Every structure is written in structure tokens, then in C-alpha cells.
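User: two proteins, same treatment. go.

Assistant:
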Amino acid sequence: MRKPVIAALTTLAASAALALPVLAGAPAADATSTCTSTIAVADVYVSSTSTVKVPGKWTDECTAIFASWNMQGGPGFGHYAGGWNFSTTSTSADSYYDPAIDPLGKYEAMPAGAQDDNGDDVAQGTIYFEIRLSSKVVVSGYRSGPNVFVRALVTRFSPSANSGQGGWVAWPDRQVMFASFSQGWQQAGSRWTTKTGYTRYLKISAPSKRSFRATVAGSGTVWSSTSKAFRE
């Protein structure tokens, strides 16, 4: 059972007050400081069924000696998924995303309390980040005279594949944009993926050898991705 983030804010070294997680929509404590304490959290790419570390960095301590943020996701950011506790001696902390119980999509780093060494509240900033499944694009093709025919295979990670062991599966009905390199990357056309994850071949005029690549747009739960260059 996941333990809630503890906003442990002390006014004396010998006494500590434990704060329950702040629920989505609950007002933050009144702040008497003149600056804002902030956190940085990078977007997360999920490509396994293992618990994923979500590092947090206390980017501006302001005047605080303690600060905590909760990691909230789901509808209305009402799903509590851990969080980060910082002190002046520990400005980096990790939360964790569990693919088995935590939702994908947009997350909020929600202020859960910060105080300075006088016991006064310090204002905290709120940030947002995304947790989505990874995707892959692979381009292949062949040359026929002055033309090159290319296609793409698009897959995404699925935690439920292989009886819950996770794996890469075809990502159908996705538009794939192709580009060729000639004094810079130039758009060359698009194709849609089929149920197998493959697109139909796209004919591109290329009298001389050159590189090609493809990009698939993301969705609310899957990241976009661009292939490695294919040269023909």
C-alpha cells in the first residue's frame, strides 16, 4: 500500500507536524513569504511494466527549509500517486509511477506545504507534466530507378500485452508523416497505419541517394516518435 507524501514541516528541531496529502482542488496554505518555491519534473516515457521513477528537483528553495509536493493525476487530478519531500540538505527526490494502478496522461505537482525556519508558510508553485506510453517508428524501403518507395512500421508499448507482461504492439489508424533529406528535411507525404502497424508504401522522387525518416503524432496516452534515418 502506497504511503502518502508527508509534508513534514518543523518549527523546532525537536517537533514535527505530519500533513496528510493535499486533495485535488483543496486550497494551499496562506503564504507569508515574498517569493515562490518551485519544483521541476520532466515528462515520463513508459516502456515497461516496472515501476517508473519520477525524479523531482527543488529548483528554487526561496526561504523554505522544508517543502513537499504531491503527484496527482487522473480526472480533476484526483488520483494521488506519491510525491516529493525536500529539505535544504536534500533538494532532489523521487516519486514513482506504477503502471498497474496509476493513470496515464497529465499530472500535477501539487503544493503540499512549505515553511521557513521561522515557521512561516512559503508560497509554492504548481507545475504540470505528462506520463505516456512510448512509441516507435521504423522506416524501410527500396529503390526503383529515380524513385524510392518507403513505408513505416509503428508500434507502441502496451502494459497489458503478453498476458500482462507488457510488450510492443501495432499502433493502427495513425497518420505517419514522411520526410526526405535534401538541403534539410523536406516533407514528402503521409500514409496511415493499418491494423498490422505498417503503412502502405509512399513513392518519393529521389534521383540520388538520400535519407528518409518518418514521424507519428502522439495521443493523450502515447508519445509521438520519429524514426532513425533510412538511407537509399
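Protein 2:
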Amino acid sequence: MNAYNTKRDELIKLSNQDHFSNTVNLTKRAFEAEKKLKKLRKQMLEMDPTCAIGDYYSKLPFLLKSDLYDCLNVMPKPAVHHIHLTAAVKVDFLVSKILYYDHVYFNREEQMFKVTKKVVSEPGYVKVNELRQYWSSSQEFDAFMMESILLPDECIKTKEHHVIWKYFQPKFMMCNDLYNYAEFFEKILYRASRDMVEQLVTIIEWKHIFGMVFDEDGILGVERECQIFERVRKVLKERFPLFNMKIVACGLKIVGKDHIQSQIDAYFEAQKYTDMVIGFDMVNEEDFTPPIDDFLP
């Protein structure tokens, strides 16, 4: 064990030699700011020692009202790495904006949304705006929709990552059409990006699965998906010149080798249409999906 620890320490030391922060020289003001932030953190922990480890919904109001959050919220943030659009926009935006379009349907029994301007023949799907009429007010219906989309307390209390997958994965499936219908995809991409810019984020690295965005004619394809990213970036850069976004193509290991290959192909194709695509990643729960070497030729 001692030999293992010694070798481990040597590897960590070697790895740290290439860390990006090695060339960063902090100013006196930076050190003073760090001390103040640590002081605010200490005050929070004295008020509630469990504020960072308690249940999310119960601790969220305390965190959002803290002086530390106020400071972090207005501090410049060079980049947000590894963020999926399907988990980036506020649920309130889906409920208060997207669900008011007349071509959004909901199947209450299956807990699934469908988006189309064509006639829906599948049983169980009803226009959301028609369902809204059966509630006493739009506010109450919006609250019902919000509750349907969000994970309930009993699902998020688990601290074991594998267990929680079975709860949040159906939520992604539930909202798949809301996010990937081309008209909504562009609105959501803009809104989520704008929200992060308002928190002083300069660069966003989107994780994106090509071939998911669709319209009434079917799947858009790589070129048209890239055009959406380009349009949104252009609009935001006109208001915030320093802003930029990047794309990392994602393959779902759980879907299989053909899907992974399709995303690798999309990665190379997308570079013909935009300079945003910078990498490729295979995703899914690491411990319960095939290892990386299973996908080697």
C-alpha cells in the first residue's frame, strides 16, 4: 500500500506540472477576493452545516439567498464545459412559453409530449392548450405541468448515482420533442445561452447528439442543425461580442456501435459547416454501459 501511495503521489505531482493554472499569476486583489469568498462560505456553513449536502429542493432557497451566491453570480466565468441542452434551460421556460404553442400535445397516462402541426392519431395525446381548459386557471395548470416535469423529492433523495438514473432518464424522454422540435430547439438554445451570458459566461461547450432535431418533414440533418447553432451565436455575439459557443458531438454508448459511428461521422461532417465543433465524446452511465474499448474497430 505504501508503494502504491508513493507512486500515486508521483503521478499526481507529474500531472500537476501541466495544469493550466501553473502559468496564472494571481494579483493581490485576487487573493483578497478569495479570502472574502472563503469567509462567506464559512458563515454559510456556520448557519447551516448541511447546506451543501442536504436535499436539493430544501436547501436551494438558502443557497440562492446567500451573499456567496450573489458574489459568484456576478463574477466572470470564462467557460461552461460539458453541458447538455436537454438539461440547461429552466423548466419554467418550457412551461410558460413552449407549452403555450398550439401544436404541443401531452399524453397524461404515458407522461409524454409530442410536437407536430399534423393530425395526431396516436391514442391518449391531447393538445396542451385544450387540457388547460379543464383546470380552474392557467396558473394552476402550469403548476401541474411543472410538477409533472420536475423530479419529485422522493426521487432525488437517493445519493447513489445508479438509482437516480431510472428517475431522470424518463424525464428526458418525456421532453424529447419539446427540446428537439426545430422551432423550439432554436428558441431553447438561445434562451439557455442568453441566461448563461447574463451570468457572465463567455464560452459555452454544448454536448450535442446530431440527428435528433426534427421538423414536420423529418430529421434536419447535420448541416441544418449547424445552421441553427450559427444563427444563435450570431445573434448573441451582436449583443455580447466576447461570447462564443463550441460543440462536442456525443454518442450514447447504450444505443450501440452504429450510433457511436454515426456521431463520429457527424463530427467530421459538421466541420464543413461550422468552426464550433471541437470534439467527440461517448456518454452514459460509465459503470453500467459497455466500456470504451468495446467500441474499438
